[in-house]
């Protein structure tokens, strides 16, 4: 099972030994399927981090990609999200 948890920085510090790495990277995945993302005010950036971590996890764990390859593809996914949201019929306003 894969689980995504979006947590405040305080919750990350309280619950994870490698909290500094998680906060620096803004997201982290563990081999057991747990994915942790640091909550952001900018929900589009938060969504991009969630999708990046999930995509990277699946590419590495289930499809055997090396980390560098999976990370590069996940960055391209983030770029595609920007393109998709720009072309989307719905207007997204960031406050």
Task: Sum this structure up briefly.
By secondary structure, the chain is an alpha+beta fold. It has 4 helices and 3 strands, in the order E-H-H-E-E-H-H. Strand 2 and strand 3 form a beta hairpin.
Notes on the protein architecture:
The chain is of the alpha+beta class and 95 residues long. It has helices at 9-15, 19-25, 43-61, 67-87, and strands at residues 3-7, 27-29, 34-38. Strand 2 (27-29) and strand 3 form a beta hairpin. Helix 1 packs antiparallel against helix 2 (19-25) and helix 3 runs antiparallel to helix 4. The longest helix is centred in the last third of the chain and has 21 residues, at 67-87. 19% of the residues are buried.
Q: How helical, in percent, are the residues?
A: 55-70%
- Distance between the amino and carboxyl termini: 34 Å
Strand order of the largest sheet: 1-3-2
Largest sheet: 3 strands, mixed
Choose one word for the global shape: globular
> Got a strand count?
3
Total of DSSP H or I helical runs spanning 4+ residues: 4
Oligomer: single chain
Secondary-structure class: alpha+beta
Radius of gyration: 14 Å
Element-level helix/strand string? EHHEEHH
If you average the pLDDT, what whole number results?
Answer: 91
Poorly predicted sequence stretches spanning 5 or more consecutive residues? none
How large is the share of residues in beta strands?
5-15%
Secondary structure: elements and pairs:
Elements: E1 3-7, H1 9-15, H2 19-25, E2 27-29, E3 34-38, H3 43-61, H4 67-87
Parallel strand pairs: 1-3
Antiparallel strand pairs: 2-3
């Amino acid at each position: 099972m894969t689980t995504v948890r979006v947590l405040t920085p305080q919750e990350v510090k309280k619950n994870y030994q490698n909290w500094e790495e998680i906060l620096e990277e803004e997201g982290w995945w563990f081999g057991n399927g747990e994915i942790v993302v640091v909550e952001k005010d900018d929900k589009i950036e938060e969504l991009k981090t969630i999708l990046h971590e999930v995509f990277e996890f699946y590419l590495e764990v289930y499809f055997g990609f090396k980390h560098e390859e999976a990370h590069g593809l996940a960055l391209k996914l983030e770029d595609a999200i920007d393109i998709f949201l720009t072309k989307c019929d719905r207007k997204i306003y960031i406050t």
